[in-house]
Amino acid sequence: MDTLARNTTPLAFIGFGEAAEAFATGWGPETAAGARAYDEKTGDAAAQPRARAAASGVALDETRAAALDGAGAVFCLVTADRAVDAAAQAAPVLAPGALWLDGNSCSPGAKRRAAGIVEAAGGRYVDVAIMAPVYPKMHRTPLLIAGPHAEAALELLNELGMQARIAGPEIGEASATKMIRSVMIKGMEALTAECLLAARRAGIEDRILGSLSTSNPEIDWPKQAAYNLERMMVHGRRRAAEMREVAITLQELGLPDGLASATADWQQLIGDMVLPAGEPDFSHRADAILDRLGTRG
To answer: Are strands 59-60 and 124-130 parallel, antiparallel or unpaired?
Structure first.
């Protein structure tokens, strides 16, 4: 893995979950060792960000102020429902002119509220949308960025070897792209669960999968079904939070949000089961979910 030594901007993270670990690990040990992080999890829940930080070589501080001290660029990677609060809590200790790279899966309205807080504190807010799972590409995961400071952010991200494109000059243009795309991507996962768990329960999954394959032969339906269930089993809670933001995005656009809200319910239901993905096949994963639901025949 290449070590990126070109960047000289002091880096910080607010929130140190999967995305933060992937970015820092991808940058390599020299760059990661110069970064600092803060995660608000406490007690037993704090063990995971501590382990992630240790694995990637990033120093995890006890306070926001320590992590943000002198940071010229801050990656905010918390849960969707905490993005605006994270900006408000960091604003008093944010260095003047610091780039606030908000990579949270929020509605454009939430991004604009966070931007107002950061800009009032003297920071430079950037709307960042992470457009694919962070593994296996890590820091090379495609990003969309938007806002009046997108050009400055693009220069920094290029120095870090990251893959970013500018979506536009307005806060919300990047997040809107991700939110609206998620209606389809996460909605297909929920449709997979509702359709194929029912098919498995009824004992006709072979017939349903065969019919789907006839209609759409370019898709390996058993493989895709297994993958979609794995996404919900492993990441369902986070995806549910994102889909609630998608529903808000649709409301902001004056559109119905029934499908997005139902998708959030399915993602939350399966995510709350905290099931291991297990064997990479549809029947194994479907049976694990149905057993937990108590509906397997």
So the answer is: unpaired
Q: In sequence order, what are the beta bridge partners of 126?
A: 101
- 89 token code pair: 């809590």
H, E, C per residue of 151-187:
HHHHHHHHHCCCEEEEEECCCCHHHHHHHHHHHHHHH
Amino acid 2: pLDDT: 44
Question: What is d(CA 243, CA 241) in angstroms, rounded to the nearest whole number?
Answer: 5
Q: Which of 101, 100, 248 is nearest to 176 (CA)?
A: 248
The phi-psi region of residue 97 (left if phi > 0; otherwise alpha if psi is between -120 and 50; otherwise beta) is left
Rounded Cα gap, residues 76 and 149, in angstroms: 16
Question: Across the chain, what does the average pLDDT equal?
Answer: 95
Three-state SS string across 242-279, please? HHHHHHHHHHHCCCCCHHHHHHHHHHHHHHCCCCCCCC
Tell me the C-alpha distance between 294 and 290, whole Å.
6
Q: Is 224 helix (H, G, I), strand (E, B) or coil?
A: helix
Q: Where do the domains of the chain lie, and which CATH numbers do they carry?
A: 11-171 (3.40.50.720), 175-293 (1.10.1040.10)
Query: 């017939």: which residue's tokens?
Result: 207
Residue 295 has what pLDDT? 55
Q: How far apart are CA 114 and CA 286, in angstroms?
A: 39
Count of CB atoms within 10 A of residue 135's CB?
13
* CA distance linking residue 124 with residue 106, whole number of Å: 18
With a cut of 70, list the residues of the chain below it in pLDDT: 1-6, 295-297
Taking residue 284's Cβ as centre, other Cβ atoms within 10 Å add up to: 13
- Give pLDDT, residue 1: 40
